[in-house]
Amino acid sequence: MKRTCLAVILAAGESTRMKSSKSKVLHPVGGRPMIAHVVDALGRAQIDSVALVVGRDAAAVEEAASAGALAVSSYTQTERLGTGHAVLAAREAIARGYDDVLVVFGDTPLITEGPLVAARQALAEGNDVVVIGFRTDDPTGYGRLIVRDGALVAIREQRDASEEERRITYCNGGLMAINGAKALALLDQIGNANAKGEYYLTDLVEIVVANSGKAIAVEAPETELTGCNTRAELASIERIWQQRRRHELMISGVSMIAPETVFLSYDTKIGQDVLIEPNVVFGPGVTVESGAIIHAFSHLEGAYISTGATVGPYARLRPGANLGAGSKVGNFCEVKKAEIGAGAKVNHLTYIGDAFVGEKTNIGAGTITCNYDGVNKHVTRIGANAFIGSNSSLVAPVSIGDGALVASGSVVTEDVPDDAVAFGRARQENKPGRAKVLRDRYQAEKAAKKAKTGGH
Ligand code: UD1
Ligand code: CA
Question: Is it true that domain 231-422 has CATH number 3.20.20.370?
Answer without folding.
Answer: no
